[in-house]
Design brief:
The chain has 322 residues and is of the alpha/beta class. It has helices at 13-24, 61-71, 85-90, 92-113, 147-166, 188-200, 221-231, 250-260, 289-295, 303-317, and strands at 4-8, 28-33, 51-55, 75-78, 118-124, 170-175, 178-179, 207-209, 215-216, 219-220, 239-242, 248-249, 269-271. Helix 6 (188-200) packs across helix 10 (303-317). It starts with a strand and ends in a 5-residue tail after the last helix.
């Protein structure tokens, strides 16, 4: 009998890659979607006829219980969130309601309706914030530097609490930055690759960015959803850092992206103070040793290949040859 999985955040970058992975493995896949959602479903166009959509909202406890009852899932992946760090400063209360209390509502729904379901919580490297050690690993103290990071810390610990208090198979994936051509346009990586394409298409002449010296551990989203799945296949639940173990600056990302289109980033990138965070996170670098050892997980796509694939996709979107 095929396994059944429920994914929140189905329409996002990670949700679409995870849905594809699960379908390829023979799962029956259900996706939770807010009835009033205006989010695009274009990332799901190729698999839409193989998915079952259930109405629900992380702000509504009853809808989550109904969704668990309808899907009767073996596995639940909570990828839904207000996931844009900059926006969390503008809407800190909403971010906390979705990214923190929303996790509690979903865990409570599982506990009440189908406690045997295995649960994955999308935690974030932003929880480390003002880092206490480099690289960051599962034992590194959290020091979030944004409402988003703070809410994710709550989500992490409430997942741990339900695991320890109720014996639930509940795991946290502490995922470092992961990108793809499906990344939302509001994120800096996609903003850069879209900006490159627009400049190449002569629709713009410059790209405004914030801190070019911020460093991140960037991987490919398609690789990272494999780690999510592997966590829920383990006999015992646990918490895992998922990262490449390499760090690159925003400046380096710009260099590679603009060069892919035959452009010089220094001629087009301008610094705009509006895009500098109130409390900047300067360096994030993950240590994925535990995930490699216990899950057998390895990232497959390297930094340059990732950046160039994103640029190529955006150039194609604008109908521009490299």
């Amino acid at each position: 009998m095929n396994k059944r999985a429920l994914i929140t955040g189905l329409t996002g970058q990670d949700g679409s890659y995870l849905a594809e992975l699960l379908l390829d493995r023979g799962y029956e896949v259900f996706g939770l979607m807010r009835r009033s959602s205006s989010e695009t479903t274009e990332r799901l166009d190729d698999i839409a006829d193989r998915l079952t959509i259930i109405g629900g909202d992380l702000l509504d406890q009853t809808s989550l219980m109904d969704a668990i009852e309808q899907a009767n899932p073996d596995e639940v992946y909570n990828l839904a969130a207000q996931s844009f760090v900059a926006e969390s400063w503008k809407e800190p209360v909403y971010t906390g309601d979705v990214d923190a209390l929303g996790v509690t509502r979903l865990l409570e729904a599982i506990k009440r309706v189908h406690p045997a379901a295995r649960f994955y919580q999308a935690s974030s490297s932003e929880m480390f914030g003002k880092v206490h050690e480099t690289p960051q690993r599962e034992t590194t103290p959290f020091h979030p530097r944004s409402p988003y990071g703070a809410a994710k810390v709550y989500g992490y610990y409430i997942t741990m609490n339900y695991r320890e208090s109720y014996g639930m198979h509940a795991s946290n994936g502490i995922l470092f930055n992961h990108e793809s051509p499906r990344r939302g346009i509001e994120f800096v990586t996609r903003k850069i690759t879209d900006g490159v394409a627009r400049i190449k298409a002569e629709l713009a002449t410059e790209l405004a960015l914030g801190n070019l010296d911020a460093q991140r551990d960037w991987g490919f989203a398609g690789d990272y959803v494999q780690a999510m799945w592997l966590m829920l296949q383990q006999e015992e639940p646990g918490d895992y850092v998922v990262a490449t173990g390499e760090t690159h600056s925003v400046r380096e990302f710009c260099e590679v992206a603009f060069a892919r289109a035959g452009l010089d980033y220094e001629k087009h990138v301008v610094i705009d103070p509006r895009f500098v965070r109130p409390a900047e996170v300067e360096l994030l670098l993950g240590d994925p040793s535990k995930a490699k050892a216990e899950l057998g997980w390895e990232p497959k796509m390297g930094f340059r290949e990732l950046v160039e694939s994103m640029v190529d996709a955006d150039l194609a979107r604008y109908g521009v040859a490299r």
